[in-house]
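Contributing new records

If you add data, match the layout below exactly. Sequence lines come first and carry their own label; structure lines follow with theirs. Keep one chain per record. Anything else will be rejected by the validation script.
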Amino acid sequence: MEPMRVAVIGRTGRGDWGHAIDELWTAVDGTTLVAVADESAEGLAKAVERLGLDGGAPGTAVQDWRAMLAEAKPDIVSLCMRHIDCHAEMAIAAAESGVKGIFMEKPFVRTAAEADAVIAACRSSGTKLALAMVNRHSPTYGIVRDLVEDGRIGRLLELRGRGKEDARGGAEDLWVLGCHVLDMMADLGGAPRWCQATITRDGRPITKADAKEAPEGIGLIAGDAVEAMYGLADGPVGFFASVREAGLKQPNFSLTLVGTKGAIHIRPDNLPHAYLREAPLWRVDKDVPWQPIGPEGIGAGLPVEEADRAAERASWARRAAADLVAAINEDREPAAGMFAGQTTIEMTAAAFASALTGERCVWPFAPRGNPFA
């Protein structure tokens, strides 16, 4: 079988190259990197050198990404920029050009309406779309799912998530880092059924007048403190919270699964990736240790001081890309695909919509635009 031809698109100065998701394609079985696009001539030259491409070959290195799609005719396109103002436009154009797969930096898109449009284009063309929700592709995450499904922590009651709570804390944290947490929350606890949220700025409830353009092409947002609660289809309640400048040396960025018999704490982008406590969280009278969970199970894995976190995270990204290739070959939805992305966008928008109206949002989630528009 011929390897799938991959083209990567970055945008130096306006989202750049994300979390190096261009470079991962140099080591994904069944693919070959054939083209790169960047509107910045300097950024393009650096990408060509970084990726070891022949920049002189026709269609291999161009500043116009549309021209690259037409000339290189890739099987897979990787949208690498962190800024999401162009994600929907590029994904729709890639699907309409006939690509088999799209690999996209997170967050997915700016609004539920954009998610709808991307999904419609991909379904029309038969294109598979995967998001770089790399924590879902950690081998340890698979162990966590098995532990939950096997009842190791009993009945799952709550999923408690927090962002990094740095200068981006609050609304921006919900968008940029919350998508990882919300994605795992829905995967482990079930699809959202309702959302009730409070979002404040300087201690008072936000209004539409507080809205400002956010960084990274997100669009209008408001709030320096977020408290959002979600009813999930499998029964538990999910929580996401973030406050700006929490003053933490070690970011809170995490998702804690609270069960009747124990708890699991997931630390996105970190090693060990998760820990298990085999007693309920409220049993503080018992000295029960948090045991690290590794790719081979409880207590497995390298000590933290010996672990290469960046290399390990890069391996998760390659697994995500490999899952897209497998999804194309097997004609299935990728593990963290466009419908999962649509769910995170709806969960994010629902938090703002609920905070602005003071009412509970329910699914199917009807509002499709920016809640502040």
